[in-house]
Amino acid sequence: MILTKAQYDEIAQCLVSVPPTRQSLRKLKQRFPSQSQATLLSIFSQEYQKHIKRTHAKHHTSEAIESYYQRYLNGVVKNGAAPVLLELANEVDYAPSLMARLILERFLQEHEETPPSKSVINSMLRDPSQIPDGVLANQVYQCIVNDCCYGPLVDCIKHAIGHEHEILLRDLLLEKNLSFLDEDQLRAKGYDKTPDFILQVPVAVEGHIIHWIESKASFGDECSHHAYLHDQFWSYWNRDRVSLCCPASLVTGITSVSYCTWLGIIHLGCDV
Amino acid sequence: MAAVLESLLREEVSVEAAVRWIARSAQSSEDDPGEAAALSALQPLRKEFVPFLLNFLREQSSRVLPQGPPTPAKAPGASAALPARAGGQPRGSRGARSQLFPPTEAPSTAAEAPLARRGGRRRCPGPARERGGRGPGGPEEGVGGESVPWAGGRRLRGSGSPSGPSLALSDPPNLSNLEEFPPVGLVPPGPAGRTKPSRRINPTPVSEERSLSKPKTCFTSPPISCVPSSQPSERYESGSPLPSRTGNLTDEPADPARVSSRQRLELVALVYSSCIAENLVPNLFLELFFVLQLLTARRMVTAKHSDREPSPDALDSLENPLFQSIHDFSLAEAFGLCFHWPLGCMFVPNTGAVVSLAMPPSAQAVSFQPETDNRANFSSDRAFHTFKKQRDVFYEVLREWEDHHEEPGWDFEKGLGSRIRAMMGQLSTACSHSHFVRLFQKQLLQMCQHPGGAGAAVLGEAPDVLSMLGADKLGRLRRLQERLVAPQSSGGPCPPPTFPGCQGFFRDFILSASSFQFNQHLMDSLSLKIRDLNGLALPQQEPSDDGESDVDWQGERRQFAVVLLSLRLLAKFLGFVAFLPYRGPEPPPTGELQDSILALRSQVPPVLDVRALLQQGLRAHRAVLTVPWLVEFLSFADHVVPLLDYYRSVFTLLLHLHRSLVLSQENEGEMCFLNKLLLLAVLGWLFQIPTVPEDLFFLEEGQLDPFEVDTVASEHGLDSVPVVDQQLLYTCCPYIGELRKLLASWVSGSSGRSGGFVRKITPTTTTTTGLGAQPPQTSQGLQAQLAQAFFHNQPPSLRRTVEFVAERIGSNCVKHIKATLVADLVHQAELLLQEQLVTQGQDGGDPAQLLEILCSQLCPHGAQALTQGREFCQRKSPGAVRALLPEETPAAVLSSAESIAVGLATEKACAWLSANITALIRREVKAAVSRTLRAQGPEPAAWGERRGCSHACEHHAPLPSHLISEIKDVLSLAVGPRDPEEGVSPEHLEQLLGQLGQTLRCRQFLCPPAEQHLAKCSVELASLLVADQIPVLGPPAQHRLERGQARRLLLMLLALWKDDFQGPVPLQLLLSPRNVGLLADTRPREWDLLLFLLRELVEKGLMGRLEIEACLGSLREAQWPGDFSEELATLFNLFLAEPHLPEPQLRVCELVQPNRGAVLAQS
């Protein structure tokens, strides 16, 4: 299914300053019933991530952290069962999981002699039962399960999507009888940077010759496409010397959580 | 000179001290002070001693030897007055080596002699070139009429410096040597026409029988005898008995008792032999030849005795030549002893040696070289076409030469010159020249690798032609052959450089072409090839005792011989072309002219940096390979070359090498005997080349010391490996054969009127060729030649196809082996490694050590690669050839092409495999080991054996990502905050768990992290179910799940945990304070679900009782509201009180009739 640029812009427009919660996503689905939840979530996630990247720094000033922490403490003192942390995050327009991390770090700084290591924090976020304070554990857990753009669960979902789409793509290639080498085989051959698949026999799709396919399992907006181009695709081109054509107009002609780059053409249709 | 001898004779000085004194300028500590004093007084004469001694011996014996020169005037006055003598001393101290014993020069004046001689030479420059009897100043033509500059030079010299009448007389029948020894009539008699004394040591011809034989033309053996050719027959008809064939001299009626001054004679002989042993003489073989001449000179004693004149130096004891002969015989035996060298092996025909039909070498054309001769290597179609045409012209010229060059009166230049020049004219571009030069060089190597155009038989086992023809009449055939093929004399023990056989064609071609471009390209190409071959890695291991490797060793030795002979051939032509512009008939320049030429020439860089190559060769102990070709190269040097600093240093190195090659010293690790002998022979020959100034040998010695040459071969040097065998020695130095001929002619005695050498008894180790043009050396070689011949007759595309197929199949074979054998081995390695890790625990030990263990187990299996590779090539090649060749290819051609392709492919594959298979296995196993160790990961064993989907699975299960997302939604709903209308239906929950089961059973899309999260989420979900925290959709009153629904869901979860999760499920989270704390919020608190869950966990074996007890125990330590703590303690006791194996029926009942009250009542 192809999403037009106009549709994409409209969706993106709706996502300005929307907290990344279940409720927001539900509203979005109501607004765009023709789009799949996965597509909407992917766009939401990317838009929100762009937003967080822009605003991340202001939440990490020591003043901000201190102020958040005090507000959290005040909140839980009043009512430990209330969603203090989640509401705080929504209020200051920050991702709940990231807010949970911020407060957890601050909390641990206060209660432990040594500053907590990143792995300890990550482990506590994955399993809040390890958090010594019961109230904070519940607060953190609430943030994590309510955050649809950040947090260990979301990360796991994203990772799973990537893995699944690679397998789907492989199945698709097998189904179409296209002979290919996958990443493992390529690595065994000594490639350092490899796309997911190199076609042993190139194919033409809509007039473009496809030599390799990279599945990104995320919505292919312009921004991420350029980022991937920079980080990966040119490297493949440098190694395989196949012509890489990337018509910008095609970039937006996509709808899928998973976007596949077929020699620079963003491929859709992996919304299986 | 005489003073030295005299002091020796007076026994003032010991022989050893004298030899030491000659060899080394400085006195050694071993010297007796008295001796030292005596010798140091004679210091200025040191360098002249050896030449003096040698000439003295010749002088004395010349009267002894039957055909010796008419005794030159020995009177001081007469000698000095002889202009010929002045001519014989062209430069420096050459005169010291002249045959003339210089009695006129008192020892005190000897030092000034060079100056005087120089003047003498200036006065008489023409004859000076003559260098005594050395003959031509340049290369001697092997066959056919010559029109080369040297020929002209000789003519000029012949008329300009007439030889003595004796010279002419000695050689009338030898028409081919008319130029060398013009008939008497042509030579104006006169003082200048007297026999020119040789500056060289002159081995005099032995007997009159040899007057017809080639040795007469030996340029070191001037035919100084004026004995008429009829004399021999007279002599032998005089009734004297023929000598016995054993050649035992004791038959001779020699009576040592009649010898006077025996002691003195012995002393002289001792000094002489010591000089030879110490390599103080320039040419070992020349001295041996001389000694043999003396030994074989018999019966002439009385005849010649009367001619004897009083010796001016009062060494009357030498008057009795017979004694000297006898004495020298023992001296020769002494050589043998001191050299550990069975003289017999040199002279007795090697019975196992090559006897085969000599055929003229056929000019097999160099086949088309697809890689270089194709159109792509030419600038234009025209150039390509021209080259093709030139190729045809070249072979036409070659064929014509083959047909005609032996015809009398045929002249190369007249017959072919214009055609060759026309052809060269067409080679317009540089590119064409290089192509033609490559062809020329290849053809040269193909035709002339063996001297005299002889075949390869000399190099290896001779093909047994005779047995091929049948044993019948074998003897007759052999005799016939021997008569038909008169062994080519190589021209005395010191022949000039020649171009025997086919080489003559190439030399004449170069001369006739007279193309500057051609010569330059040829030099480039030759230099390159020489460098390549010289740097070739050659066998370096010692042959071992067992026969198997001996077979290999023969092959390696043969390879060395081929390389050596190719190098010599190439170097000879390089020298020929490189020095061609500087050679001419005119005498060598002198004085200022020479100085200016020297100044000019010293600016010209050498065509090939032979000095560097020589130094490299010496350092790498490869002199046995480098020196022989270098000698060939230098033998064509013009007169100026040895005076140039660059080449002088080369000569100095060679001189020092020569001196260091003492045959009697054969130590472990030193150069092998035959290797030394070869070097001594070629170096000795070089020092006799007319262009090499004779003073070089005797004067350079003082400068030798800085060039310390280490002849102690390193363990890997070629020099210490016996690469040279007797056959190679004879091939390289055919003139050694002169010694045999000398003996042979003596042994056979007179053959009556036939005169000269008796052909039928001539040893036949020299020129030999097989029946075919190119006798194969081994069956492998034969196969290769057959293949060559096969391709020659086929279109080039056939060869390309076969080579292509072989190349590809060989390469594929290697890939196949990699993918099969090596992959299997790697798999084995992985299994072994797993075992190792299991037995040795996680780390399994040092990876490097592991690798070593694995490789030692697996690498031996690599041997199978060769068998498999062979099999692969055998299987694959024929089909490929068949597919690529035209359908119409005849069956026989096809099958040959197939078998050649199989052979080539196998060769290629097996060569690679045998060299690399072990390394390959090692590399792959190493990669596998590091892969396996990496994949070990943090929790390898915990995951247990992973199961895939069942075969029937169609992978339609929901995606894990979707499920995590769904469960997360439920969790977030349960945890809140939520809108009032939000909730989940129990059906949805059941459906979700059902989907989870599907996903867990279809592993297609499941990755470990996803499964981990699913497990964790399912535990969270169970906790929420137990705490009744899941908001259920429906009427507000019914916001909670029914007990039965909850239990059903919990049982579903338990089943999933037990059966479907393959990874660990964090069940202990069920009893984490946070999850148990969820219960605290509910009123009234419901414990029965938790108790139910705990029981089921234990029953299903998901958790142990002890584990649960531990969790419950730690729960009690947490801070709870008071009442909650009490209830928790009650639960704890209740759980502990339960029987370890609860009855199933009770639980069924509980399921059917969930009775919360009963449970609570129990508690």
Largest sheet of chain A: 5 strands, antiparallel
- The class by helix and strand makeup of chain A works out as alpha+beta
The SSE order of chain A reads HHHHHHHHHEHEEHHEE
- Helical residues, percent of chain B: 55-70%
Report the helical percentage of chain A. 55-70%
Low-confidence stretches of chain B: 67-253, 299-323, 333-363, 451-473, 484-490, 542-551, 702-714, 750-776, 937-945, 1142-1163
- How many beta-strand elements of chain A? 5
Please describe what this structure looks like.
The complex is a heterodimer of chains A (272) and B (1163). In chain A, β4 (260-262) and β5 (265-267) form a beta hairpin. Chain A contains twelve helices and five strands. The longest helix of chain A has 24 residues, at 152-175. Chain A has 272 residues and is an alpha+beta fold. Chain A is 59% helix and 10% strand. Mean pLDDT of chain A is 76; it is low at 238-272. In chain A, α4 packs across α6, α5 (84-92) packs across α6 and α6 (96-111) packs antiparallel against α8. In chain B, α37 (796-840) runs parallel beside α40 (891-935) and α47 (1105-1117) runs antiparallel to α48 (1122-1137). The C terminus of chain B is likely disordered. Helix content of chain B is 57%, strand content 0%. Chain B contains 50 helices and two strands. With 1163 residues, chain B is an all-alpha fold. Classes of the chains: A alpha+beta (272), B mainly alpha (1163). At the A-B interface, α8 and α9 of A face α41, α43 and α45 of B.
